[in-house]
Amino acid sequence: MPVIVFASSKGGAGKTTACVVLACELARQGFDKNIEVSLIDADPNQHSAAWAKLEGKPSNIRLYDNVTEENILDVIDQAQEQTPFVLVDLEGVASSAVVGAISRADLVIVPCQASQNDAKEAVKTIKTIKYGANIARREIPFSVMFTRLSAAIFTKTGKYLTQSFNEAGIDILKCSLIDREAFKSIFSFGGSVNALKTENKKEQISLDKAAKNSENYAEEIKRLLKKGIEQHSERSITNV
Ligand SMILES: Nc1ncnc2c1ncn2[C@@H]1O[C@H](COP(=O)(O)OP(=O)(O)O)[C@@H](O)[C@H]1O
Ligand SMILES: [Mg+2]
């Protein structure tokens, strides 16, 4: 079952947020079908584990915390056997745990804020993904995901970086994560953005937009995974 890994050598790029938001949305969409999502926290800072231990974690998210370089491959393999989606939140370094997780990935998301320094770190991370692909002796699909984008404008730097990634043949998710209070709040109050409550109309509009943003993000990831699986089976058929 698909393994989605969140990697970036930059701390603060938005890995944990992108990982937890996707876990919640996949869990919401799969709830009625008893679909479970594994959330593997392999960052010693344990930020996604701390979120999962707050009240409100969707019951169909299974947490694997305190995962280390010694057990990460076993934990991913075990989670993959047990749940249809496996999400891995990594530390902002290029450690053997990071390379190991990447070598098991069906898709690597590289969160990147729209700044030159983040883009440089994204390029470094892509080199690590290529190294992991070399070890695994297969292609590992990856996409940069812009995070913390302004809701109001797509900045000049954002446009420039998009063009640079395009010219380098690097895929960028169509869906970005917008900078919204809701995506921060879940780490204080627990649960998903859909569960956040407010009496204020303006705040409610913003919560609704965060929920819609999460939905579009999960839909795009599902489409990418499906495309990857189809391409893989096409290759397998031609290899027969
Ligand atoms: N889309 C977003 N909207 C608002 N705040 C965000 C968003 N993405 C990340 N943040 C904030 O940015 C900081 C770093 O994000 P985090 O996901 O922890 O990054 P990483 O896991 O890569 O270190 C956190 O304070 C987080 O709340
Ligand atoms: Mg993190």
Write up this protein:
The chain has eight helices and six strands; from the N terminus they run βαβαβαβαβαβααα. With 240 residues, it is of the alpha/beta class. The chain has a single domain, classed as Rossmann fold (3-Layer(aba) Sandwich). The protein has a six-stranded parallel beta sheet with strand order 3-2-4-1-5-6, with helices on both faces. The protein is globular and about 55 Å long. The structure holds adenosine-5'-diphosphate (ADP) and magnesium ion.
* Overall average residue pLDDT: 94
Instruction: Extract low-pLDDT stretches.
Output: none
Order of helices and strands: EHEHEHEHEHEHHH
How do the strands of the widest beta sheet line up side by side? 3-2-4-1-5-6
Number of domains: 1
Distance between the termini: 23 Å
Strand content: 5-15%
Q: What composes the largest sheet?
A: 6 strands, parallel
The helix content is 40-55%
Structural class: alpha/beta
Q: What is the CA-based Rg, rounded? A: 17 Å
Would you identify the CATH architecture? Answer: 3-Layer(aba) Sandwich
Q: Name the CATH superfamily assignment.
A: P-loop containing nucleotide triphosphate hydrolases
Q: What's the number of helices?
A: 8
Could you name the CATH class?
Alpha Beta
What best-fitting shape do the alpha-carbon axes yield? Answer: globular
Bound molecules: adenosine-5'-diphosphate, magnesium ion
Keywords:
single chain, binds magnesium ion, alpha/beta, 6-stranded parallel β-sheet, 240 residues, globular, 8 helices, binds adenosine-5'-diphosphate, 51% helix, Rossmann fold, 6 strands, 13% strand
